[in-house]
Amino acid sequence: KSMLMRRVQRRMGLLHLDRVDDYLKRLREDPEEVAALDKDLLIGVTAFFREPEAFVVLTEQVIPDLIRRADGDHAIRVWCCGCATGEEAYSLSMVLIEQFTAVKRVPNFQIFASDVSEASLEMARQGSYPESIVSDVSPERLHRFFTRVGENHYQVSKQIRDPIIFAQQNMLSDPPFSKLDLISCRNLLIYLEPEVQAKAIQMFHFALTDGAYLMLGPSESIGRALELFEPVARKSRVYRRLPQGRPTRLELPLVPRRGRDAPTPRPGAGARGELRTSELMQHALTHYAPASVLINRGYEILSMQGPLVDYLEFPPGQPTQNLLTLARQGLRTKIRALCQKAIDGNAPVVDSSAHVRRNGQYIACSVTARPITEPREAQGWLLVVFQDRFDERAEPPTSAPPAPESPLVRQLEDELRTARDDLRSSSEDFESANEELKASNEEVMSVNEELQSANEELESSKEELQSLNEELSTVNSQLQDKVDELDRANADLTSLLESTEIATLFLDTELRVKRFTPGITDLVNLRPGDLGRPVADFATNFQDDPLLADCRRALEKLTSVERQMQSFGGQSCIRRVFPYRTAGNRIEGLIVTYTNISQLVAARKLIDEGEAYRHVVTHLPVAAIFVSDTHLYINEAAEALTGYRQGELATLDAWFAALFGARKEEVSILYEGRKKRARTDAIVVTLTRKDGAQRTIELSGAPSDGIEIIVLRDVTEKRLLQRQVLEIASREQQRVGQELHDVLLQDLTGLALLADAARHGLGAEGGGRELMAKLSGGLEQLNAKVRALCEGLIPVEIGEGDLKSALEALCESTRNAHGPSVTLEADPLEDLDPQTAHQFYRIAREAVANAVRHGHPRSIVIRLLQRDAGALALEIADDGVGFDESRRRDAGLGSRIMQYRCATLGGQLQIQQREGGGTIVSCSTSRTQVPSGRGR
Ligand SMILES: C[S@@+](CC[C@H](N)C(=O)[O-])C[C@H]1O[C@@H](n2cnc3c(N)ncnc32)[C@H](O)[C@@H]1O
What count of other Cβ atoms lies within 10 Å of the Cβ of residue 856? Predict the structure, then answer.
């Protein structure tokens, strides 16, 4: 009770309540307080293998006996009543498994672990315990029955968890488990009143089977229930259930319910009928049965029958049930001797020589002591029967005691009685002292439990403090990290501000300078010593008259104010003034920035120019691509020519790749080369449209200041026409040549013959003959010239791959006709289409003829070179007088025709001065670029 009061007072103290009534009111209104008090009252102090000696008794005596008796399928049933957070139940599970294993049997047991506190049970079910359990559990058991979880917890193994059923159960009101072999109810009874404890012991007796065991806490005992349990190990509070004749009547709840819950007595006719029979029976026994008492071994009367007043007397004072105390004078020694004899011999014993003192006389009587053997529960009890003797051998009643009852014996008897009374009163004193001691002990135990729980609370507070401390250190180190981070961010910001070109000024709300970046010093000569001075002091130096007005406006409206202006020595800049907001969204001043935008303005100008170009390009009547650093734009004519749309290809590189495919690099190099040499003449290339069709174009550019306009002129038709013109001219040449050959040459030959005949006819002498000889010579020369002319006009038929032979023939005929040495250096050629061979041949012949005609060389070299990727180059080099630049500009017909021919092959013709004198004509082309099927 005192413990409960202390606990209640503790709660009241915590709530600052002085009166119990107030606390009661609080309890009625606040369910959380009820839960808190409940938690405080149910002291759940416990430990693994608590009071280890008790577990030694369990291990050495109790469990081996239970295992021995539990043969076959019978599982040992254990009830751990008031199991708190489960340590006791798991301890029992461990020792049971160990003992089963020791006798090489499969563990077969079931533990019902109950408690009234659901919170405790929840923890018990989890089976996770702190590291501190190492002080209670041996390392072997830890290793065998636990798993370490994380840093500081142990988890019970499945092996010891599986046999346990945790259940919420109030042992004061809920029905107990039954047919149990062992009940362990430790440190729970100490919280109960002695009467309730006694009822609990009865309940345990009811729940256990015969010979089963009960284990209590060190401050608990079975009290007076000596007929229900016998001690196995007194110190460890281990008891064995004794069989009992009368079945134990179990009354639940153990604590009477109050108010509405109290059971109401049930009146009924059946009850009255049963009563009547037993009353009659009692009546009959009273009158007809001999006086007898049923006693246990302690001479305590269990039951009385018959006219006992003749043999027993009931003295005033404390009531007693002891037979020896109640026995009338003359019987006590007899009864003791008889009972002892009956117990020793386990057989009925009769003494007929007894005399009982009744009404001042000694009356002969017999006393029988009969040991009870059936039922088993009653074994050890005795039935003591008294009967007066009426037979003839019985001595008549006398007032003097019979012989053996001498005054000495009587005196001794009296002394014995006095001693016994003294003993009884001492014993009672002792018992009451014992009770008091027990109560004090229980009080001490409960204080101890409280202290333990307080200790645990302190421990947990300590752990909490420790974890708080750890958290604080973590927070501290996080803070330190944050400070470092801030330092770094600050350093970054400072260096950013310093490295940035943006001149920045930080002002407070009074427009005083708080901070500035080095860039600001380009505007005004600010020094660190100027910090804190009003910006108005410097405003005029800024060449920024509206600054103060803008600052005030920004502070007033809390918005930024932006202004473009001339500063930094006339350069363009943007000045922004915006409010400085702190993390808490407070305005603590202004930030003024000056950003130099001169480059931006220049770029804008460029862009505007670009736009203008673009406008021009759009309206150009030819296909054109406009390229700048930032833009690439093609006009509609270019879209029509290439088949690609504006925006489809992003870079000039991509355009070249799309249009010129494998020749892209070549075209790029050519184009870039021209750009560098600032030549505006066009490059003739073949372009592949998006739909795959090929067009011949002239590519020319007009680069200027990072902007260029590339013009693409479609000359496909023009080239076709040129080729047709060449064809027609060739045909006409051929026709004229043929005509010359067939008609004029024949006529000339005829005339020469005639002249020759005339010369012969004129005789050997005279000027006529001489004249005729001249005429004949002149005609022969004319004939040779016409023949040579014919050779030039009538095309040489060049078969496939026959260009080399044709060129060799050209060398030979030139040598024969004109004298200079003409040689051919030719690479081995792959198959060449006749058209290309023909054009090359005509170019070579024209170049050789030109060299002979104008250069008067001593030697001419014709080179036919095979370049990479099927490209061919033809080169005619002579060591003549070279050529006159003015003549090249006039570009005689022969040269132009050569150029056309070369262009029809998709190539370029070049006529250059040769180092050391002479001329080189070169024509390089790619065979793959030659459009096939065209005439010559
Ligand atoms: C001091 S602990 C003892 C735990 C364990 N038996 C031991 O000795 O280590 C007492 C336990 O009994 C439980 N308890 C108190 N009254 C109870 C009742 N009427 N029915 C069941 N359990 C009760 C409490 O909740 C508490 O967990």
Answer: 14
Does residue 119's CB lie within 6 angstroms of at least one atom of ligand 1? no
Nearest C-alpha neighbor of 89 from the set 127, 62, 39:
127
> What was the pLDDT predicted at 935?
34
Residue 115: CB within 6 Å of ligand 1?
yes
Length of the chain: 936
Domain boundaries, the chain: 2-38, 46-255, 277-405, 500-596, 601-714, 800-936
**Which position has the higher pLDDT, 811 or 425?**
811
> Same CATH fold, 601-714 and 46-255?
no
Ligand 1 pocket test target in 83, 115, 193 with most atoms within 8 Å of CB = 115
3 state SS for 351-377:
EEEEEEEECCEEEEEEEEEEECCCCHH
Atom of ligand 1 minimally distant from the CA of 170: 20
Reply yes or no on whether the pLDDT at 170 is more than 80: yes
Q: For the residues 655-670, what does the mean pLDDT come to?
A: 83
Q: Are 130 and 152 in contact (CB under 8 A)?
A: yes
Quote the CA–CA distance of 179 and 577 in Å, as a whole number: 91
User: How many whole angstroms separate alpha carbon 875 and alpha carbon 898?
Assistant: 12
CB within 8 A of 738, min separation 6: which ones? 790, 793, 794
CATH topology for the 601-714 domain: Beta-Lactamase (3.30.450)
Give the CATH number of domain 800-936. 3.30.565.10
Written as one letter, the residue type at 286 is: T
For residue range 23-41, list pLDDT tens digits in order: 999 999 999 999 888 877 8
Using one digit for the tens of pLDDT, what is the confidence trace for 375-418? Answer: 766 778 899 999 888 777 777 777 777 665 556 766 776 777 77
Structure token digits, residue 934: 């065209």
Q: Among 4, 39, 41, 42, name the best residue to mutate to test ligand 1's pocket (greatest count of ligand atoms within 8 A of Cβ).
A: 42
Ligand 1 atom at minimal distance to the Cα of residue 174: 20
Q: Which amino acid is at 437?
A: L
Site to probe by mutation for ligand 1, drawn from 55, 117, 188, 204 as the one with most ligand atoms within 8 Å of Cβ, is 188
116: CA distance to ligand 1 center in Å? 7
pLDDT in tens, 891-933: 466 777 787 788 777 777 888 888 888 899 988 876 544 343 3
Q: Is the N-terminal amide bond of 703 cis, ω within 30° of 0?
A: no
Residue 334 beta carbon below 6 angstroms from any ligand 1 atom: no
Q: Does the pLDDT of residue 130 top 60, yes or no?
A: yes
Q: What pLDDT score does 263 carry? A: 37
Q: Which architecture, in CATH terms, is 46-255?
A: 3-Layer(aba) Sandwich (3.40)
Question: What CATH architecture is 277-405?
Answer: 2-Layer Sandwich (3.30)
Q: Which amino acid is at 222?
A: I
Interval 486-523: pLDDT, tens: 888 888 887 777 776 678 888 998 889 888 887 777 77
- 176 within ligand 1 shell (Cβ under 6 A): no
Instruction: Determine whether the shortest distance from the Cβ of 82 to ligand 1 is under 6 A.
Output: yes
CATH of region 500-596: 3.30.450.20
SS3 of 842, please? helix
Cα-based angle 362, 366, 367 (whole degrees, multiple of 5): 110
477, 497 contact by CB (below 8 A): no
Window from 115-124, 277-286, 453-462, 593-602 with minimum mean pLDDT: 277-286
